[in-house]
Amino acid sequence: MALLQKNHTLSSEFIILGFGDLAELQIFFFGLFLIMHLVTLAGHTAIVLITLIDSCLQTPMYFFLRNLSTIEICYILVIVPNMLANFLSRSQRMPFLGCALQMHLFIALGGAECFLLAVMAYDRFVAICNPLRYTVIITRALCLQMLTLACISGFALSLTLTTVIFLLPFCQSHEINHFFCDIPAVLFLACSDTRANEIAVFLVCMLILLIPFLLILLSYAFIIAAILRIHSAEGRSKAFSTCAGHLLVSVLHYGCAIFIYIRPKSCYTPEQDKIVSLIYTNVTPMLYPMIYSLRNKEVKGALRRLLQSYNQMRQQPNAR
């Protein structure tokens, strides 16, 4: 009987309800979030290209920023295209394995991003608190090792968590009241006791969210203390400007994620979760390139040089 139930679950589909209750506004939201999606992709792609091309940005800080933007591009491509398609239909069918794959990639990329933000905080900690030994400590080999560890950790924890959730029986409603296969929305549909699974979700979220966030806060406590010891006002301003963008991105990223994932199943509220997830998967990724570029003179300078060289290349054929 259990085998039949398992086979029924594996062969079934989930129905993504999305925003079917806002039918009259769906075309408007489709246009709005499509524009936001394109702006986000353009911003992160620009950061990737600028940090690859510009010789002045070949430092560990921009190596991590480039990879953060690469992860962010993959992360939004896992969620946003399906969300946009959902705006054009009242509901969207998704195969069981497709839902599991979406959740796995979403958690894996989100987890890798969380670990990478912690690595970037460590990079800034060494740069400001131990500047004379920075090049000795933060080597290219160490950067590659930390990036690899962040990605492997995210994907390993994601595989564990996705397996734990999708081994549950979904023998009643298969309607996910969300715009993607998110953890609380899928867990809410399980028709068995999920307390052990909720503990597993909590432990994984502790590893992915709380521990890196606490390490970031600890790093910035030391960074702020070091900045306050700098006698020059110009030096303090420069040191703070290199960290402010990263700290703001970290607070936005972890704040939304902790609100959604570190809580019991009984506190699940679908409509509230959808709104927070919209912000988490659409608004904050769009803000990241703006935060990093607007607060960073080196990125703005690199973008200016890239545009100037592009204009010169365009003018050369005309001159001939």
UniProtKB/TrEMBL annotation:
Top-rank taxon, per record: Eukaryota
A molecular function GO annotation: olfactory receptor activity
Primary subcellular site in the record, as a coarse category: membrane
Keyword Cell membrane: yes
GO CC term, one of those recorded: plasma membrane
Protein role: Putative odorant or sperm cell receptor.
Name of the protein in question: Olfactory receptor
Originating organism: Ursus maritimus (Polar bear)
